[in-house]
Amino acid sequence: xxxxxxxxxxxxxxxxxxxxxxxxxxxxxxxxxxxxxxxxxxxxxxxxxxxxxxxxxxxxxxxxxxxxxxxxxxxxxxxxxxxxxxxxxxxxxxxxxxxxxxxxxxxxxxxxxxxxxxxxxxxxxxxxxxxxxxxxxxxxxxxxxxxxxxxxxxxxxxxxxxxxxxxxxxxxxxxxxxxxxxxxxxxxxxxxxxxxxxxx
Length: 200
Hints:
Elements: H1 2-16, H2 32-51, H3 56-77, H4 84-107, H5 118-136, H6 142-163, H7 170-193
């Protein structure tokens, strides 16, 4: 019984990581294993961020790599099918990203720095992730995603400026929080209203 459970667990892990090709992936543009693996990686990044093993800047870089995979996947599917070679490249990219996430979580000691803004940093990463989820679900266009990510970077630059003297005042924190609240509202509005192609 234990052997059967262990085998089932191994198979589930392999499928989730996108390591095992499937019949469903053999034709057309469906890539369910890759999509599931990306969702699992996203959740793992969130866990690492919450535990302090992944820093906000690292999380942003990991999500950028995840977006690159999405863009590559869309390009591969643009002709109506994804070849086995293209699928293998996507699986390789996803596996490399997953390995990097696990490496950071396993090797990073949790350090709290003076003048840190973990609450604000976490909100930024969550918003970035939400934008990517909207793109992946087809609710946010690539054009709108670029605009939203640009606003996110503006907030990050403002945060860096506030931190230059080693202290982030309550007024500065409120300003950052207000901008993030507005950005999050716009992201949710875009996802819920599906405004693709309306010039946003």
